[in-house]
């Protein structure tokens, strides 16, 4: 009985050491993450192998694993930039980004896990200053928001693409102008709208007047043609035709021949 503790102690110590080693060697990569392996007694950051994927991994206790989120992420940024005429503009934007998982080792080796502040934000600020500086406040306020959004995205992507990072989208959420400039632009837009409305009314009235003139001219021409085509002979023939039709009617009547104007008959009925 006295020998059991002496035999069990080394085993117990071994089990404890094994648990410690396993605990220090075990790495769990959560969903949406990937790990970069750093070999302390080797080549350092492993760049010629795929990063560690999701799940449980055992690595040597003297090595390290740097975990990165590889899902799409979003960051909101407020930027102070200048328009083409030197006025302060506040631009509210959001950036959708993620690291290039296939290049995660190179990203860690050359830039590090703080790539958002080292690469993405300085680049988008520079692109925003460059793009917004091409436009006037009025253009930024009214019609060019989609254009500047696309241009900022293209300029940012051009630089970031070579940095093992992917920019999926840049959205311009809001463009804030100085209050006095904003009020002036709104007044100008309102005046332009009223001017366009007035011009539309003038054009409509002019077209209506032209229509009435054309209609009146058409009626005058028709009456002129009709008057020119009517003479006594035609009128007399029409009268005769009407007399014949009336004489054939079953209604009782008296026809006085040659008593009307120009010798036309006068018809007297009992109605």
TrEMBL record:
UniProtKB keywords: Membrane, Transmembrane, Transmembrane helix
Give the bilayer topology: Single-pass membrane protein
Q: Transmembrane: is it a keyword of this entry?
A: yes
Subcellular location(s) of the protein:
Membrane
User: Gene3D superfamilies recorded for this chain?
Assistant: Band 7 domain
Tell me one Pfam family matched here.
Answer: Band_7
Q: Membrane-spanning residues where?
A: 7-27
Coarsely, its chief localization is membrane
Query: Which positions fall inside the Band domain?
Result: 25-189
Q: Which CDD domains match?
A: SPFH_prohibitin
In terms of superkingdom, the source organism counts as: Bacteria
Name of the protein this chain belongs to: Prohibitin family protein
Q: Which organism is it from?
A: Winogradskyella bathintestinalis
Phylogenetic placement of the source organism: Bacteria, Pseudomonadati, Bacteroidota, Flavobacteriia, Flavobacteriales
